[in-house]
User: Fold these one by one.
Assistant:
Number 1:
Amino acid sequence: GVTDVYSNGWAFMALNKNNGTAQCWGASWSGGSCSDLDFEGVTDVYSNSFAFMALDKSTGQGQCWGSSGNGGSCSGIDFAGVTDVYSTGSAFMALNKNTGQAQCWGSSSGGGSCSGLEFDV
């Protein structure tokens, strides 16, 4: 059965971490559609107002869906070593607290651009 439920401003996600299946509903442009995604191994799910991000911290594999301009697209980002993920209304930040390395994506005006910044921990 369902182990966790997540939401954003426009959609829900019900996840079964035991078998990697999920159901999403609400506005499809905001993450309400996830039937084509595989959630096997997902350890954490994060959201902002318009998108979701699912992460397997043990493998560093992540996937994002929802509004691509607001964090729903994270292809090409390597999440290996990520310890924490934070969000604003329209962007995400994945941080490795051990190294201070951060990656940001989503709306640049919402914090989706953090290149050049150093996060000494």
Number 2:
Amino acid sequence: AALTFTDSATTASGIGDGASSPPASDEPASAAHGDRLAEARIPSLADLGYAPPEHAPLFPGGEQEGLRRMAAKLSRGDWVRAFAKPKTSPTAVGEPDTTGLSPYLKFGCVSS
């Protein structure tokens, strides 16, 4: 491992100018890789040897679910006007006191 600037510069000088890199292509990845991309998919839990979950997830992923939850909360004008973060209980059983949008905001499914 390079411990000094001189060691790093010596290592970098041996990398070259990138002339051996493959040429850039304007073709979409699907054209460049043929049918391999069309066949690619995310494996299911069963494919990986796991049993399917017994219950539906509390927070299903995705943009559509995040937008659905946001629209449902914002359509309740009385709830929105009365919402006060310090008075909420994130561990409430059933429908949460909070908006429930945190995971959708954190993972970029819904943005402000």
